# Entry
Amino acid sequence: MRVYSTGRPPGLRCVGEVDFTNHGDWQAALGTLPTADEVHLDPSELRFIDTHGTLILVEASQGTASDRRLVLHHPPVAMLRVLRQFWPAEAAIEVARS
# Structure
C-alpha cells in the first residue's frame, strides 16, 4: 500500500491493498488527513481493502470534528458494499457522485 498527500483538494490518494499485513500503516496514513472541514480520499487505485481496513477508515472519520466530512472519490465496489452493510448512516463519510 502506498498513500500520497493531495493538495487540491486536500486529502490522500491510496494505491495497492489494505489487509491484515498493513492495518497499522493504513491507520497511520489516515491519521495524516488534513484538518480542513472537508477532506478527500481517492481510494480508486486500491485493488483490495478488507472489512477491518474499512473499519479503520470509519473510525478515522469519526475521530474528527462533528461538522467535518470525508469525501470518497471512486471507492472500490467492495469498500462501498462494506460501508453500506455495516455503516449505512455514517454521516461523516460521503461518496462523491462525479
